[in-house]
Amino acid sequence: MAYLMRRIGECSPLICLVMIAFPLLQRRLQKELMSLIKEPPPGVVVDSDQGENLSLWTINMTGAEGTLYEGEHFTLQFKFSPKYPFDSPEVTFIGPNIPVHPHVYSNGHICLSILTDDWSPALSVQTVCLSIVSMLSSCKEKKRPPDNSFYVKTCNKNPKKTKWWYHDDTV
């Protein structure tokens, strides 16, 4: 820490901020990872290779018992920017089995307000996983969003660059 404090006196404000914030980001992600490994939400398992790259996580999810997705296996990818937790992670379904759901596009993008407009630094990977499990569990009919074809053809690769319109909280 003494070395860091000495270095801070020699750097620009932006560099100083990065030097201080980066270790905080790493600690936060390590803490969240350990919490998710020790006490995962039901049906959620952190990929066993996790830990090598703290800015990119792979999480496996199994559909909850008694739901339309019971026993189905899905994979989520979490990408964290250097601004996390003040900026939400980029979360998408990846792999061959993307759930057919009114709020999940066939390219894996998820229309969920806490991933953009309603994000708060008080939220965590665990709360995002719980929200996605809840979203899937409450679904009454497997179908794609009405604008799926158009969206998938025209969207940005990063779902956070989409201006989502949250109009249906009943699914």
From TrEMBL:
GO molecular function: ubiquitin conjugating enzyme activity
GO biological process, one term: protein ubiquitination
Organism of origin: Rhynocoris fuscipes
Lineage, broadest ranks: Eukaryota, Metazoa, Ecdysozoa, Arthropoda, Hexapoda
Name this protein carries in UniProt: N-terminal E2 ubiquitin-conjugating enzyme
Primary enzyme class: transferase
PROSITE patterns linked to this entry: UBC_2
Organism superkingdom: Eukaryota
Keywords, alphabetical: Transferase, Ubl conjugation pathway
Record field: catalytic activity: S-ubiquitinyl-[E1 ubiquitin-activating enzyme]-L-cysteine + [E2 ubiquitin-conjugating enzyme]-L-cysteine = [E1 ubiquitin-activating enzyme]-L-cysteine + S-ubiquitinyl-[E2 ubiquitin-conjugating enzyme]-L-cysteine; S-ubiquitinyl-[E1 ubiquitin-activating enzyme]-L-cysteine + [acceptor protein]-N-terminal-amino acid = [E1 ubiquitin-activating enzyme]-L-cysteine + N-terminal-ubiquitinyl-[acceptor protein]
Record InterPro entries: Ub_conjugating_enzyme, UBC, UBQ-conjugating_enzyme/RWD
Short name of any one Pfam family annotated for the protein: UQ_con
